[in-house]
């Protein structure tokens, strides 16, 4: 088993970061600083290079610093068998990306080579938030591990937007709407099948994570609830039958854009019964499960980004988490306002972040 290592990060004009260049430790890195200084922005920049999405839900315009004309990211990633260079240039209206100096032709070619797993305070929404957050969890794993999944998501989204636009017209053209049924079914059924398979893996991996970090004694259960069929013809027929409902609501009511992942804890809906601490534990278990699945499917250990983890977990669970990460061999990045956290992370390289700049290592 090999592990991914980020060997260099260079960021300019991203969020509140000025000009930052770092050569991280291959094992552990701790970013220490007061709130609002750029710690989370640096993790966000690293993950954005790997996913082309903000884990904080920011738009492209929000990622470019207020006084910056553009943002530039450079991330170099290595494993025992390969190395890759990611470069991204962002303006408020455009984005230019290259992988090893070239524009990537396939989604998996880009997303499959720099897997990151992020645990951050917003992950409470995995348990309590809207279904979109849980769909995004599934999609992050699948875009990195399933050939054609990224393209299917993109093409499905295009067809869905076009069909919805037709449904919103004052005098909708039924034939034009029906022309999108088969494309939606073809891409959507593939998305549903891939999600169904990964959810079965996710359950076992989440239970393993709960045991590894002793997060909770109660059992977690997961149930995938698709809004369509994994069979293309059945899905297409269902879309045709839903025309009247879709016209009335002016939107497409069936499809993986409406799927949800139901999370139960102790036999009941976790969003209704889990305490704040239990919600944090379940969210962390899902992120560690994501790491385990990526490791199993790619035979490579992803980079783990932990944003403000000390505020999300008590000290005992934080220590167990860091011990687990050490056993897995993952490169870990940790942000914190508490310098004492660095002592809990074995062999960590410690950086100070202040006013959007990264200082020399703290001794």
Structural commentary:
With 363 residues, the chain is of the alpha/beta class. The protein has 2 domains: 1-115 and 302-363, Rossmann fold (3-Layer(aba) Sandwich); 125-299, RecF/RecN/SMC, N-terminal domain (Glutathione S-transferase Yfyf (Class Pi), Chain A, domain 2). Helix content is 44%, strand content 23%. It is built from 14 helices and 16 strands. The protein has helices at residues 39-51, 60-63, 107-111, 125-128, 131-145, 149-167, 174-178, 181-212, 232-241, 243-249, 270-273, 276-298, 309-312, 315-328, and strands at residues 2-3, 5-12, 19-22, 28-32, 71-78, 83-90, 95-99, 116-119, 220-225, 260-265, 268-269, 300-301, 303-307, 332-336, 348-354, 357-361. The strands form 4 sheets. It has a 6-stranded mixed β-sheet with strand order 8-13-14-4-15-16, with helices on both faces. A 5-stranded antiparallel β-sheet has the order 3-2-5-6-7. It has a 3-stranded antiparallel β-sheet with strand order 9-10-11. β15 (348-354) and β16 form a beta hairpin. α6 crosses α8.
Runs in which pLDDT lies below 50 for 5 or more consecutive residues are none
Oligomer description:
single chain
Number of domains: 2
Tell me the Rg in angstroms. 21 Å
Main sheet characteristics: 6 strands, mixed
Q: Which strand order does the major sheet show?
A: 8-13-14-4-15-16
- Got a strand count? 16
Structural class: alpha/beta
Q: First CA to last CA: what distance? A: 32 Å
Find the CATH topology of the largest domain: Rossmann fold
- For CATH, the homologous superfamily of the largest domain is named as P-loop containing nucleotide triphosphate hydrolases
Q: How many DSSP H or I helices?
A: 14
Overall shape: it is globular
How much helix, percentage-wise, in residues?
A: 40-55%
Query: Averaged pLDDT, please?
Result: 91
CATH architecture designation of the largest domain = 3-Layer(aba) Sandwich
CATH class of the largest domain: Alpha Beta
Beta-strand percent range: 15-25%
């Amino acid at each position: 088993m090999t592990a991914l290592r980020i060997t260099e990060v260079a960021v300019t004009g991203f969020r509140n970061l000025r000009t930052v260049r770092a050569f991280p430790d291959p094992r552990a890195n701790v970013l220490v600083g007061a709130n609002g200084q750029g710690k989370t922005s640096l993790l966000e920049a690293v993950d954005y290079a790997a996913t082309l999405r903000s884990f904080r839900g920011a738009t492209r315009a929000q990622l470019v610093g207020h006084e910056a004309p553009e943002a530039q990211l450079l991330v170099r990633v290595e494993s025992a068998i390969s190395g890759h260079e990611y470069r991204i240039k962002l303006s408020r209206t455009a984005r230019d990306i290259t992988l090893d100096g070239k524009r990537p032709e396939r989604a998996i070619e880009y997303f499959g080579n720099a897997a990151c797993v992020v645990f951050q305070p917003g992950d409470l929404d995995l348990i309590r938030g809207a279904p979109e957050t849980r769909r995004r969890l599934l999609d992050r794993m699948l875009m990195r591990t399933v050939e054609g999944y990224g393209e299917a998501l993109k093409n499905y989204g295009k067809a869905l937007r076009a069909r919805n636009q037709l449904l919103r017209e004052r005098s909708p053209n039924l034939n034009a709407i029906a022309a999108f049924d088969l494309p939606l079914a073809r891409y959507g059924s593939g998305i549903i099948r891939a999600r169904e398979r990964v959810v079965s893996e996710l359950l076992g991996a989440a239970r393993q994570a709960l045991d590894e970090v002793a997060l909770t004694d109660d059992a977690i259960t997961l149930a995938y609830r698709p809004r369509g069929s994994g069979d293309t013809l059945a899905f297409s027929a269902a879309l045709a039958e839903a025309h009247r409902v879709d016209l009335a609501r002016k939107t497409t009511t069936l499809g993986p854009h409406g799927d949800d992942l139901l999370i139960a804890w102790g036999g009941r809906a976790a969003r209704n019964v889990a305490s704040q601490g239990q919600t944090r534990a379940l969210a962390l278990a899902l992120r560690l499960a994501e790491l385990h699945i990526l490791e199993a499917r790619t035979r490579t250990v992803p980079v783990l980004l932990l944003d403000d983890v000390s505020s999300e977990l008590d000290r005992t669970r934080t220590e167990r988490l860091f011990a687990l990460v050490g056993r897995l061999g993952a490169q870990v990045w940790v942000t914190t306002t508490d310098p004492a956290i660095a002592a809990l992370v074995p062999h960590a390289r410690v950086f100070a972040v202040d006013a959007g700049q990264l200082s020399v290592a703290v001794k």
